[in-house]
């Protein structure tokens, strides 16, 4: 069973990871801000509260709805154009010519827009709003994908190559020249397609598609089978990016709208209404929150989604979904072309039709006899439509069923996201080098999946720091053992057990913290928690030196000095039992600022250590320039001490030099007894590594200390 689930996840992930599918989803999500604005305008104009409607007319006059309607026209009614530009731009960004700055992605978007206009009906002088809104979404997506792919196909096989020299033109002009031939050929393809369509009498491709689909379903007959088919395909078109409600409207008008009139006439005649299927039946029982019963999906996301972006989207979508407006979740999640939500979105409404049909057939719920506004919230709609509380209860039953139907697919999607994030996390970790003060910002500015994950992690780091670690950030302590086998001290190390990504490597934490300007807050948190821990250790009678790494960029940060002073006072610490570790390239930086910073640390009374010593470019003689207490040998030297004579000679020389100026020497990454023995023979004072202990959480470290 687990293998089947894993295979399903891999198949769905492979489909959703395709660069075109990613671009389509990106295009839909990019439209979310203006769709939310437009959706609120729709809600305001259609709020099913008579007192509100009367108040607005009284205050603003009968034309008050025009204000929100104008905003809606400028938002949801240009959806297709916005998505077309965004999809083509995203596709362009994934192609090599764009990555190499040979093609401007904006040019590709403009070409796609031109192709859409070329193939559309412009007899009235331009695109109509019906072509630019949700009705034109399918054509817009299709044109965006085809035009972009054609553009780069022609770009790859260019026959005409115009030589433009860098000293004669700027990069934008070079990009424009490179785009000329593929743009012309792409336009020609779409113009030819337009001529072919006209030859067959197809002037409006949008209208043609909808008319064909309507004609297919016109022969449907009234009944349960027709209800299933009607419901399923209404959903199916939404998944493809087509406005399912518009496509099936003619079928609804033909089959279901007259049935409500039949029921109303029966009630007026004192007879029992018997027509179960009416248009309001589908609206009330299968469109809670909008098509696909997306209110069920939103509630399921709020309950089961561990992915913060999904749960946040659920919270954002809920207020509108209560009034059956679901553009936010449809295009924000998105539902369109999303393999993880296709199955529940298609089949849940069919299941709800069956449940509502059974309940009504068994006379558990009255048939629908009243028309209700499509924005009427759940429970109210069920009660008004049937005139009975049973209608509201049936809505609750369908809601609960819907939540349970969506639940396993949400979990599948979460599992796929976790798997994808782990793969991207591996790439991110591989590309992050050790932080130094000269490294430019490179991760948060990236526009690929690595950059997206880096920004998400940086955002999560800011959040957990605001919550004082939030139980995810914690410190571990690696023992340092002296020549007699006793504990000399311990090194404090940062760990982050991310709620979704697992353990984040410290170099990744440090790098992203510095890029996101969170390094000061992070260092302050580390120092505060470490000093508290040292206070607890002292109360337990643990005599040791606790060392804390200081980020290179934080050496000259006055706030760290204040945190250190405050922590020493509050926890009643002896400064001599604290050691600040500085990397060699910073510690041996012969600048006045570095000297002054270290002098301030020495004034407090803490010890200073040079970390990773022996692999820098600074001469060993500079070790005499500062008053350091400890030298920590670079781990790579210790690792090679048995196999590389040069490493052994360097280690021996460092130990002798440190001993001559009365400095402690700590060897890191000691993993074998043989390494320990040769270091002992060279005169090394203290050892640290997995031979003795891995880094331990506080309770485990206390137990280890007491065992010594």
Q: Any chance you could write out the topology, listing elements then pairs?
A:
Layout: H1 2-17, H2 19-30, H3 32-46, H4 50-60, H5 65-73, H6 79-93, H7 96-99, H8 105-119, H9 129-132, H10 137-156, H11 171-199, H12 205-217, H13 224-240, H14 244-247, H15 249-255, H16 257-268, H17 279-286, H18 294-304, H19 308-321, H20 327-332, H21 342-361, H22 380-386, H23 389-431, H24 449-466, E1 473-482, E2 487-498, E3 502-504, H25 506-515, H26 519-539, E4 545-549, H27 558-570, E5 578-583, H28 584-587, H29 592-604, E6 607-613, E7 630-633, H30 635-639, H31 645-660, E8 664-667, H32 673-682, E9 686-687, H33 698-707
Measured by DSSP, the beta-strand proportion falls in: 5-15%
Distance between the termini: 49 Å
Kindly name the structural category: alpha/beta
The major beta sheet can be summarized as: 8 strands, mixed, barrel
Describe the structure.
The protein is α/β, with parallel strands linked by helices. The protein contains 33 helices and nine strands. An eight-stranded mixed barrel has the order 1-2-4-5-6-7-8-9, surrounded by four helices. The longest helix is centred in the middle third of the chain and has 43 residues, at 389-431.
Summarize, please.
By secondary structure, the chain is α/β, with parallel strands linked by helices.
Q: Could you list some keywords that capture this structure?
A:
alpha/beta, 708 residues, eight-stranded mixed β-barrel
